[in-house]
Design brief:
This protein has 452 residues and is of the alpha+beta class. Helix content is 40%, strand content 22%.
């Protein structure tokens, strides 16, 4: 007899380390002992179950037989026909459970170790029906051979491993849409593998911040996008570029957001470059922007540092679309906002604020359009507005709130500047200097073409 106290302590320790319940471990041990019993004392085809008394440590073995009748088993004629058919063409019709089908009915081969006829089963239990299980108590054995012990060990390890996978899958499935802290474990090609606790998560190239570098041992916060079940274990997809990562980081840093007194109404992000967040307060006396920024910018700087220096603009959300659009173009100052048809808005800014409102490569107005959901047209005070120009604008404004006519205006201005520079170069006199032979020849050629 084994030491029951140490046995119980070992089960509790394994359950705590693996994160699974003690009942699952007990079931694994019972399955392992039943497999060992069948290996040494059972017959082929038998179904043996074991039940352990956790108070005394005794194990009770039972043999399970399924109750069948003449309609659910193959007759001798059918078996002979199946044997002939198998010799001619070894293809047997089977159902989803893998059992043979004869004339559309589910039937099984009778095995005396696995099945029992209904008439015999009723002698033991008069109320039993076809398809139910009949259990009979077996003689208890305590001595098992080496092979049986190895079989029991493998069964225990396999069952515990399966239970651990199920536990990890359930735990991280409930964490979808949340952020976790992970350590870079290894880098394989473009994929980064993070140690996130009990298992590994993968950060694919598409979900990485552009320009961000990763090194083994680096600790970062990642967003759990989805969890999939895999034969080798749960597959967890992570992200550093997902927009909600920013809002979740602010929830960690700003108590007012987690408490619900400050709400993040909208968010627009270009990972690695810039983000815009619209916030609103649900309580009087609470400054939403001040709460997000923190004393001397400590809260927003913590988020910026976590994102590798990504700039973050925090604006106040408003129900008034004109005020909301004006706030979204921050830090640029807005003179006037006109709401047009088809979810379009015309924004007038001072001449010295036009480049600031548009932003580098149109980024500021593009993020403002994403944030508000409006198609924004930014113009200077001296630029006239033709309504037909807005209606006949090309397809790049259709269905994409992030696009704006400001980008087209910036591109047109850039093209005009380039064309002006080229004309100036053609008209300017050519200076003959060392290393300028190629440039001189090109200019001379163009001059001859003009003369001709």
């Amino acid at each position: 007899m084994f030491d029951l106290k140490n046995f119980t302590a070992a089960i509790s320790q394994i359950a705590e380390e693996k994160g699974i319940s003690a009942e699952k471990i007990i079931e694994s041990i019972e399955s392992a002992v039943a497999a060992a019993y069948k290996k040494d004392y059972g017959e082929r085809g038998q179904i043996i179950k074991a039940k352990m008394d956790q108070k005394t440590g005794e194990v009770l073995f039972r043999q399970v037989k399924i109750v069948v009748d003449k309609d659910t088993i193959f007759s001798e004629e059918e078996l002979a026909a199946m044997t002939t058919a198998a010799e001619e063409a070894p293809v047997v019709r089977r159902n989803e459970d893998g059992k043979n089908l004869i004339d559309g009915e589910r039937k099984v081969r009778f095995n005396p170790e696995k099945h029992i006829m209904l008439a015999e089963a009723k002698k033991i239990n008069p109320k039993i029906k076809v398809g139910e299980e009949l259990e009979t108590v077996l003689e208890t054995k305590a001595d098992f051979g080496r092979i049986a012990a190895q079989t029991a060990k493998q069964v225990v390890l396999q069952k515990i491993r399966e239970a651990e996978r199920e536990s990890i899958l359930g735990e991280f499935k409930s964490k979808e849409g949340q952020i976790v802290s992970g350590i870079v474990q290894r880098i394989e090609g473009r994929n980064i593998f993070f140690d996130i606790g009990k298992t590994l998560g993968v950060l694919v190239k598409e979900e990485q911040i552009p320009g961000e570098f990763y090194r083994p041992g680096q600790r970062l916060k990642v967003f759990i996008v989805k969890v999939e079940e895999n034969p080798k274990g749960p597959l967890i997809f992570l992200s550093r570029a997902y927009p909600k990562l920013v809002s979740k980081l602010f929830e960690l840093e700003v108590p007012e957001v987690s408490a619900g007194s400050v709400l993040i109404k909208s968010l627009a992000r270009e990972a690695g470059s810039r983000s815009k967040i619209a916030v609103a307060s649900t309580m009087e006396g609470v400054d939403p922007i001040g709460s997000m920024v923190g004393q001397r910018g400590t809260r927003v700087m913590a988020v910026i540092n976590e994102l590798g220096g990504e700039k973050t603009d925090i604006i106040e959300w408003s129900e008034d679309p004109e005020k909301y659009i004006a706030n979204s173009l921050s830090p640029a100052k807005v003179i006037e906002v006109k709401i047009m048809q088809k979810n379009k808005a015309l924004v007038t800014v001072p001449e010295d604020q036009l480049s600031l409102a548009i932003g580098k490569d149109g980024q500021n107005v593009r993020l403002a359009a994403k944030l508000t959901g409006w198609k924004i047209d930014v113009r200077g005070p001296g630029q006239p507005f033709d309504p037909s120009d807005s209606q006949d604008r090309p397809e790049d404004l259709k269905g994409d709130a992030a696009s704006s006519s400001a980008e087209a205006t910036a591109d047109e201005q850039g093209k005009e500047e380039k064309e002006g520079e080229e004309k100036t170069k053609e008209l300017s006199p050519v200076e003959v200097t060392e290393g300028g032979e190629k440039y001189k020849k090109i200019k001379v050629k163009k001059t001859k073409e003009k003369k001709s």
